[in-house]
Amino acid sequence: MLRFILQKILLLIPTFIGITLAAFMFVRLLPGDPVTILTGERGVDPERRAAMMAQLGLDQPLPLQYLDYVGKLLQGDFGQSLATHRPVTEEFFARLPATLELALFAILIAIALGVPAGILAAVKRGRWPDHLVMGVALTGYSMPIFWWGLLLIMLFSTGLGWTPVSGRLDIINYYFEPVTGFMVIDAWLSGERGAVASALRHLLLPSIVLSTIPMAVIARQTRSAMLEVLGEDYVRTAYAKGLPTWRVILVHALRNALITVVTVIGLQIGVLMAGAVLTETIFAWPGIGKWMIEAIARRDYPAVQGGLLFIAVLVMVVNLIVDLLYGWINPRVRDGR
Known about the structure:
The protein is an all-alpha fold. The protein has a single domain, classed as MetI-like (MetI-like fold). The protein is 76% helix and 0% strand. Helix 5 packs across helix 9, helix 6 crosses helix 9 and helix 11 packs antiparallel against helix 13. 31% of the residues are buried. The model has no long low-confidence stretch (mean pLDDT 80).
């Protein structure tokens, strides 16, 4: 098991190097530069512009800029935001709880609906529940997040008035100092009556929008894994012994199918982080995605580079944990069989 863990960790090193290079090159491929954004359309005289470029280190050749960037990373220096002049790490981790809260609720919704839907489709294979679940899953997977989000806002927020349009809390009626950064938990700790309900109402629509694609993937993969397991001899033996259908499905079949499903759930973390960019922008959710969009618009090189790197490392760590759990559950994986 130790060898398996070391192999997985060593594989992260070239991946991390590739991510630093991708993050560095991405922001420099965007049209414009920080000096142009900071000085506005009128700009400044050439001498002042050259001085600002030198101050930001942008007058050096790209290879030297990259080596300087990596050197600072190795020292734990992710730079300062060009817009706020605050450390990138401080800005990132200040917004991380909002994104994690949104992603957590989204994946819980995806699991709570996707797994039962996949089980139902597998058990009713070829019948109308199967066709219905797979049709809905295909629609959810194909639906653009920005269109789906706006549609839900028009229906439930603007039309019916059931949910707020944006934000994390009704700040007119509730205000308290954050403790954890997770609004639902902080609302509960505040003791203010109705604060938790307000936080949940703000969280509902963004979570549904963000959970749509992972839910579709989980439903499809659960169905596929269950169909494979339901054809095994031990499942037929369980039926032959006269065990109740629910016990055969939930205990004997689902337990073995979950190995694949857990892996798929772990891989959806990357999808959640990508979807959070659009979801947070649509719902004005003050998380990492919205912060990244604003940083890209400002050509805030340190913020964009740091944000991309932090998100990539977060996804890598989650995938590493999933790989280790998979190897622990299934010994054949860690033995290379």
